[in-house]
Each structure stands twice: as structure tokens, then as C-alpha cells.
Amino acid sequence: MAVTTPPRVPAPGRGAAVRRGVPRTVPKRGPGRLDKAGPVAYALLAAITAASVFPLYWSVVVASHDDNSVLAGSTPPLVPGGHLVENLQRVFELSAFWQALGNSFVVAGTTAVSNVLLSSLAGFAFAKLRFRGRNPLLVCVVVTVMVPTQLGIIPLYMLVTDMGLYGKLSALIVPALVSAVGVFWMRQAVEENIPDELVEAARMDGAGLLRTYWHVVVPGVRTTAAVLAMFTFMFAWNDYFWPLIALPPENGTVQIALNQLAAGYYTDYTLMLAGVVVSVLPVLAAFTLLARRIVSGVMAGAVKG
Amino acid sequence: MALQAASTTTDPPARATTPRRFRGERHLLPYLFIAPFFLVFGVFGLYPLLQTFWVSLHDWDRLAGAGEWVGLENFGRLLEDSDFYTATFNTLSIFVLSTAPQLLAALGVAWLLDRHLRAQSVWRALVLVPQYVSVVAVALVFSQLFGRDFGIVNWVLEGTGLIGDPVDWTADTWSSHLAISFMVMWRWTGYNALIYLAAMQAVPRDQYESAQIDGAGRLLTFRKVTLPAIRPTIVFTVVISTIGGLQLFAEPFLFDQQGNAEGGAEHQFQTLTLMLYKYGFINNDAGYASAVSWVLFLVIAVVAAVNFLLARRSERG
Amino acid sequence: MGPTRARRTAAALAAATALLALCACGSGSDAADGRLTLTVATFSDFGYKPLIEEYERTHPGIDVKERISQFDQHHNQLSTQIASGSGAADVVAIEEGYLPKFRAVKDKFTNLADHGALDREDEYLDWKWEQGTLGTPGFVMGYGTDVGSLAICYRKDLFEKAGLPTDRAEVGKLWPTWDAYFATGERFRSRVGDKAWFDSSGNIFTAMMNQTEYGFFDARDQYVGDTNPKVREFFMASAQATADEQSANLQPFSQQWNAGIKQGRMATMTCPAWMTGQIATAAGDAGAGKWDIAAVPGGGGNWGGSFLTVPKQSKHAKEAAELADFLTSAAAQKKIFTGPVGALPSLVPVLEDPEVRGTTSEYFNDAPTGQLFASSARGLGPNYRGTKDQQARIPFGNALQLVEQGKADPEEAWDKALDEADKNLR
After folding, report:
1. Is the ipTM of this complex over 0.85?
2. Where does the signal peptide begin and end (chain C) (predicted)?
3. The pTM is what?
4. Exposed/middle/buried for B161, CB within 10 Å: 0-12, 13-18, 19+?
């Protein structure tokens, strides 16, 4: 935690050292370079892809059989059966999965939007505005990036209970409205993407700070904002520890609903894995549509700050 | 490619707005801009963390509330509790077992992806698939794959003659750690590979060319040019993996079908977070659980400090 | 340009507001059209599905949702919800072993006596009623659901293979005591080497513990697991039998356990009435007719059985109390017993109902489940449970698992259990 100045944090933007002096284009790689993929590379990649996809395929296989006996055979199930649709229907019939999907969407969506808005607002202030105590406050932000706030979970639980938020989605949303990582990231993005002259020009034109924020800053940091939104969404969607504590199972998130399917003395694994399929499908569908953007988003997140 | 995307967003935002009266900068506004963060962090981040310490100094039942002041007794009890050492060992062991091979594998995958490929974007998207699967789904699916009697892992290992009897993956320290690490690895390798890939593509081309001229082969170029260039990114991924890896909860929690956070009959895969959950939310001993919290905090701080030292060295080196 | 921007801003703000509004009302589940939703939370299939359908038919305007959780998680979450003052279901099942844990917070539960529960006292088995009142006159914490009269389920075909008698009366005579039961296990194993004698040492230990009045705690709620000779006797007996390879080493209620039942990996299982439903589900159609039921060694015993409670935080305590009353009514309990779940009623009139007495289970070779379970139920007594009974139960269960995994001999496991229990009960 011996951090004294902001840039000490090995943020994704460390690659920036490389980038700053370089024009903002990827060096094009001409053909005939040493890194042309041969059959071995393709074979390896195919194997890796297979390993990435196999557990999902297997879930679909189990979810498409009619009962647990598929798991108790002498050979594991590798060929799909004909009951997938039926099992998917049962997931929605037997559990509050629609509600859970809705809850997850609300929580993840709200925190993603609020993180982008509040982080970029704070990032703008830190990057472009002069005010007393700016630097020490910024150091505070940077230090808190490293603080594992999850460890305060017991008092957090008590606090949320005292505020009457236990069992409500706001118990998940309010503590996650804005994060240190987000503020730090957006500050970097504002600093690097918005020249001071632009802010000055807007001000000269008579735009107030809020207008400047909305018309100059927000459009200028769109890419970073999208990456931040995506990460926040994924994080909220996947969180399990806190929802397990703060929400009752019948008003839970997808993760809680999924766990519920595995509960009870007798677990119906075809049902449970159908639940896994249901929980993965919307994310997978959205991400397939956006695959290109997400891949570049993840990669941008790595290189950008 | 990523950077190209980034560059397109710096479209000139200075649109001709009608000149208006210059409003002047309000002194309060910047503070208002940063206030939400400090408010949220103060109330839901810092306060609970400090309060954790306060709670740890009491005999505190989660349901009944604060009891009497006991000073450092909870910490003393923790130091005498063999479960605590087991949990610390488990946490570090699973962390190392999952992080080291994962990052190495990610480097390999990135290296494979960093070349001319047909359907390049498809490969990249496929590698990222595990990231879309939630932790709970991963834990539930892999618990089945690692099942003792009907798990596919045992079936394959037995089929290839690597093991004679089926392995009870939950029963032993090494096997449970391996299984849990595997879940973490599966989910994160592709993600880290893409991060490395981005870093690799930012390495200036002339560095490769001069290496080529020197007659360096593929592996040597990778070692001499690529690795040093992406070192900061590697440090970054290590730091991120540290914070997540040391707080592992869902995987070990769901690996045990009993759902009671014991982490196996001998606590062989009870991580510190699992222990925190057990005492805090099952036994309702909030005081003791808070002591666990603080120790976990220290462990993370120490590991993070080591990371920082490494990061500094890599900067100089 | 200006208006477009403004509109976009407005749209973004509207979307954000809508999201916030959504979450603000996300938890209140009462629809505005006057319909009422009651949630029933249990930890396994209680057989309520047809009853709930019936209730919804006869009570238009009321929807009933059923929520099933994992056993320990269900009760842990209930503590959280009781402490938080919200989030609990309207009707919550509490298993008898966990009931004492909620004794200290009993004022957080609706006194069902205020909703006419006292009228039902005469119906109940005395001790079951007593348990549900927590010994407080005028207070009724929960309506008893079922009791878990013990028996042994056995695989007829495997007994035949081992040359053991297969008739249920004769089988019962094989094991007047647990020692005799384990001795029979030796005989069985010497002839059918590839099958185990019982499913899990944990289940054997639990069954034995359920035959004694005081187990881990004495009447003053003091932990006596380390000094009560019965605890050691039962622990060592089940551990020794496991060390002698009589156990199939199947963690109760796990996937392996369910599959093990289906594959017939063991010849016998301890069988409280509700277990018959578990076996039938796990073994499936292929297991029909292979199982039978005989008397348990060591006299009768009670394992399990639950209570339906209504937390005070329920916004519809009155309706919830009515629903709990309905789900535990004589008609309901009879239906459950004769249905696939087979949980044994806790009401005297039902237990004496000739139809219930005459119930046979087709799945279990037409075993006279009515006679076997119902006739012994009246002779049962409660087992005393300490406030922290579950915290004691887990370390002993873990220690037995060590024996199953071959990591400890019975003595080592016993020492480990005592150490861990001490730690867990601090």
C-alpha cells in the first residue's frame, strides 16, 4: 500500500509507457512475417477452444436428458438427448428464474450506468478542474483501489439491515453505485483524451461545468466508458457472496436462483444444468452479437488507462 | 485494433454553441462532482472496514448484537486455531495453483493468437467464452465434472490408465485444491490471454524486425522482445488476480455439496473467506469472523506489497 | 443539434430513473390488483405441491409460491432474515433439530395460538405438540408437520443373494440391537463382497443418536458430547463398522448418494418414514419392488420432522397462519403420507385412521408402511436438542467422513470430533 503518487499503481495503462510516444495506430503487420500461423498453431488453438467450450456443451447435454440416470451410467453423457426444451421450461416453472433474471438485469444495469456517470464526473473533476485538496484526494482514490472492501462484509450487512435495505435490490445497488477503479480509470481517460484547450474552448463559449461535462467530456471518453460499463455489468451479474447474504432466495439474482436449483435433498441435475444453460444463454447471446466490440473492449481495457 | 477504436472516439466535441455569458467556475462544483464517490466509499467501504475492527474487539453475536469488550481475545483465539492456519495455507495454495499456471497458459494462448490467423476475431471470441459463464455456474458444472463416481475427469483419467481407482476430488488437500484452481483457471485464462494479446500488439514492429535481422527464432524473439515489453501488463494481471484470488468464495463454497462452508471434513479446502462466512453467517460469531476479516486483509496487503516490489523491480530492470 | 442532444439527455435520465424506480419496488411482491402472494419455504420436497394447488383453487385471490433450499442454508438464512426483520417467507419450515436455535428469538414469530392453534392441541402427538410450543404455555411457535419414525429399508434381492432371510418380519428379528445389525453386516459382506452394508456412517450415527433422549446436550442446554457415554458408544460403533468396510461411503443427499441408491450399492439404509420418498425418487422406476422395510435395531426412534412457523415480519400473518394450518391439517397429512413423499403424520387421528394404518407401499414390495411407521409413532418420545445442536452435529459428521475416506481410525476420528466440536461451540 506504499503508494505516494497516482501513477504508481500498475493500472492497465502501464502499457501507456509504450503507447504515449507512438502514434495511435496499431503497427500494421505485413505478410511474410515470422508469426504466420501454421497447422500446429491452429491445432493448439482448436484444442484450447474445445476446452473452453466443452463444459458448456456438457451442460447442454445433461440438460437435454430426462433424469439423473444420465449421470450415473458407466460412461459420462456426451450426446444430447431430446428433453432440452422441456427442461428449460421446467426451470422457469419451478423457480423464480424470470424474476431473478430481471433482478440481475436491474442491478447490473443500474450499477453500470451509475458507475459510468459518477466515475466520469469525478474523473473530470480530478483531471481538469483546479480545487483545493485535489491531489491528496486523488491519492485517496488510488489507495482505495487496492482496498478489498469485501472484507467489511459483516458490518456492511448490519448497516444495510439497519437502513432497512435487507432483501431489497437497493442493498446490492447502493454500495456499488461508484467504485474507486472506475474513478481512477475515467480520470486517466479524461486526461488522455480531452485536451485542456477543448475544455477551455467550451468554457469560453459560455458552457457551464455540467454542460462541458456532458458535451465535451462524455463524448470524448465513450470507449473507456463502454469498457467500464461492461466490466461493472459483468461484475454485478456474477457476484455471489454479497447477494447470498443480502437477499432472500426468492428475490435473488440469477446466481442465487441457480444455486437454489442445486438445493434440496434430491437434486435434479438435468434441471440444475438447464438452469446453468438459461443463466449463460442471455449473456452469451448478447456477447455473441457484440463479440467484436467486447474483445476489443477487453483489449482496450488492457492498453488504455 | 483496440487503439484504432479508441482513436476514433476523440471526435472534435467543440460544437459551435451560441456564446453566452461566462458563468464562472463555482468553487463548490468540483467537490460535488467527486462527492458521490467519497460518500459511497465512506459509508459502504471504509466505515464497514473500520467497524470490522471494532466488532472484532467484542464478543459479538450477529443476531443478538454487541456483547462485552474482549480486547484482542478474538485474535488470540485465531492464532491458536489450527483451522486458521489451514485456511491461510489453503488460500495461498489455491491462489498460487490457480494464478501461476493460468497466467502462463494465458501467455501461451496470447502468443498463439498474436499471428496471422484466419477468422481471427472468431478465435478471440471463442477464447473469451468461459468469461461469460458465471462463477456459480462454473462451480456447479465443475463439481459434477470432478465427481468421484461419475465425473468425467475420473472417467478420462481411468480410461487413459493414469489412475487406478477413482479420485475423490473433495477428499484430499491436493486434489481439492487442483479442482478448485482448475475452475478459476478455466474461467480466467482466455480473458488474461486477450489482455496479453493487446499488450503484445502494442509492441513496436521495428523491435521484432531488428530481432529478425539478428536471426532470432520465434521463441527467442518471444523471450527477448515480447516478454520484456509486456512485463508491466503481466504485473497488472498478477495484481488483479491477487485481489480476486485471495478472496475466493463461490468455488470452494459450492464444491462442497453440504453447503455449510466447512470446506471438507478436514477443512482441506476452506479458504479464509469461507471461514469468515462460516463464523459470521452460520455460527453467528461476528466478533471472531471480524478477526478473520482483518487477518485476511493483512494477508492481502502483504501479498500486494510483494507485488509492488516486483513491479518496481520490473520497472528498473 | 441542440434539441437532439437535449432529447438524448432526457432519454438517458429517464432510463436511469426508470431503472432506479424498478429497483425501488423490486422487492415488494404484492401486486396492485389485490392478489396476495404467500411464500412457503422448506428444505426438501414436503409433498405440498398438490395441496398448494388445492388451496389456490379454494382461495381465489391467493397465490402460493414454494421455495426449496438446501437444509443448512435454509436454516442459516432464516436466522439472517429473522435478525434483519425482513426477507423471510410467510410460512417457514423449521426442522426439529434447528428449532431450539430459534428459541431465543421466539418473539419474532407469530404466536399461532392467536390464530386458533390451541384448538388443535388434542389432535397432535403429545410430545410433538410440546416441541412446537417450546414448553411455553399459551405460545405456539409452529404446527408440527411430520415425525420421523425409524425403520430400516433393505434390498430384498441382495439379501437373497447373501442367503439372508428376506421376509420383513424375519429380517427385523436379525437385529434386535445395533451390534446384531453390524454382525449381520459382516455376514452379508462375507457373501456379497462387492456391495456395502449401509450407505453412510453419518446416517447410522444420526439414527442411533435419535434413539436416545439426550445426545449432545443435557436438559440444561450444556454441551455433553464429550462426557455422554452414549455419544461415544454410537460414534465408535458406526466408525468401527465403517473401518470394517461396511459403509458405501456415500455422503448423504449428495449426487453420489442418490446414484448409489439407484445402483443398489448397499443392502440397507436407515429409514425414517420420509426417507422412503427419497429412496423412491432416487432409485426411480427400476428400483420398484427391490426394496422392503423392516424394524430398526434398538427399538423405535424419531429422526426429523418439522414445524411450520409464521415469522412476525410476514405482512399477511393471518393468511399465512391459515395456510400453515391447512398444510398440517389431518387431511393434508394423510394425503402426504399416502402420496409419493410418505412423511409420517404427527396427528393422532390420522395415525389411527384405518386407511392410514392399512397403507402399503407398492414401491417397497407392498410393505405395510401404515403399520410399520404409524403404529410405532405413538410410542416415540422427543430427543432433547440443544440450542447449538447443529454446531455440534457438524464436527462429528466430519470426523465420521474421515473414517470413510480412510484418513483416520475410529479413535483418531473421535479425538478429532471432540476437538473440533469444542472449537465450533465456543
Report:
1. no
2. 1-31
3. 0.86
4. exposed
